[in-house]
């Protein structure tokens, strides 16, 4: 897990403690007054850290995001959620406090997951598909979805494709391609032949510049007249091999 700035975390905890004390003092001195929006958000910040710490180390973008980052993303989600609270529905529920906590928790966790997904790699898989994968961890089809989406995303970074799992890139923080590439190379070294490994590595430029099919054929020693076709076949065989030899749990850990 990425080491986080301890001083910043301690400063945050001290500031939060003082803010919570001010909230408590306000409630005692002015029990009939409505708390401001900022104070209300502060009162739920402990829930944000509680939920952030339930994300495993692998969920923390495999070391890209620290607990500070997760708390920050959760706080963004909390702020947005507080502005969307339907107080009529909350007050009409059998347990208003439980209903409110459930409403906020869902949106806080969603914001944290979005932050993780943005910082993890260059995989353009829509959030609803990621949630579908997470909710069906034993579904072997997700492995095929993962690898097909990964290599399509690397090959077509602009999103100009009919692949339903590719989205047009947003203006958020850059994707961590180095992390994703390292993950792919580890799996490739384990499951692919030397030729398959080199063809896939050079085709997608995982740790080097991309090469044309003709150059790759020359590099790996393929001299047939239809070298381009053979390179395409090897690429497909290599991806199929990765799909066949990767457990759903390995994909889920990365997602």
Number of helices: 12
Computed Rg: 24 Å
What is the overall pLDDT average? 76
How would you name the oligomeric state of the polypeptide chains in this document?
Answer: single chain
Low-confidence stretches: 157-175
N-to-C series of helices and strands: HHHHHHHHHHHH
Spatial separation of the terminal alpha carbons: 15 Å
Task: Write down the overall geometry.
Answer: elongated
Structural class: mainly alpha
Helix content: 55-70%
The biggest beta sheet, please?
Answer: none
How many domains is the backbone divided into? 2
| Beta fraction | under 5%
Work out the number of β strands: 0
Quick description:
The chain has 255 residues and is an all-alpha fold. The chain folds into two domains: 6-120, RNA polymerase sigma factor, region 2, helix turn helix motif (Rna Polymerase Sigma Factor, Chain: A), CATH 1.10.1740.10; 127-254, no CATH class.
Outline the structure in words.
The protein has two domains: 6-120, Rna Polymerase Sigma Factor, Chain: A (Orthogonal Bundle); 127-254, no CATH class. The radius of gyration is 24 Å and the shape is elongated. It is mostly helical and 255 residues long. 23% of the residues are buried. The chain starts with 5 loop residues before the first helix and ends with a helix. It has helices spanning 6-29, 37-52, 67-82, 87-92, 96-120, 127-135, 141-155, 177-191, 194-204, 213-220, 227-245, 248-254. The chain has twelve helices and no strands.
């Amino acid at each position: 897990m990425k080491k986080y700035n301890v001083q910043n975390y301690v400063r945050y905890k001290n500031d939060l403690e003082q803010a919570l004390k001010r909230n408590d003092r306000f409630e005692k001195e002015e029990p009939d007054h409505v708390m401001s929006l900022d104070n209300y958000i502060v009162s739920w910040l402990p829930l944000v850290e509680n939920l952030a710490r339930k994300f495993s180390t692998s969920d923390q973008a495999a070391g890209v995001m620290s607990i500070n980052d997760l708390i920050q993303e959760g706080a963004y989600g909390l702020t947005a959620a507080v502005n969307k609270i339907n107080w009529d529905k909350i007050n009409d529920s059998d347990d208003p406090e439980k209903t409110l906590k459930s409403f906020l928790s869902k949106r806080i966790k969603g914001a944290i997951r979005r932050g993780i997904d943005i910082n993890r790699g260059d995989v353009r898989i829509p959030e609803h598909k990621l949630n579908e994968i997470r909710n069906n961890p034993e579904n072997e089809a997700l492995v095929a979805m993962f690898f097909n989406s990964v290599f399509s995303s690397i090959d077509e970074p602009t999103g100009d494709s009919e692949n339903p799992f590719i989205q047009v890139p947003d203006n958020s923080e850059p994707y961590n391609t180095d992390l994703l590439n390292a993950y792919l190379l580890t799996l490739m070294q384990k499951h692919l032949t030397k030729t398959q490994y080199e063809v896939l590595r050079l085709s997608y430029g995982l740790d080097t510049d991309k090469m044309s099919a003709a150059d790759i054929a020359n590099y790996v020693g393929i001299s047939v007249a239809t070298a381009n076709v053979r390179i395409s076949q090897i690429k497909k065989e290599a991806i199929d091999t990765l799909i066949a030899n990767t457990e759903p749990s390995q994909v889920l850990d990365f997602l």
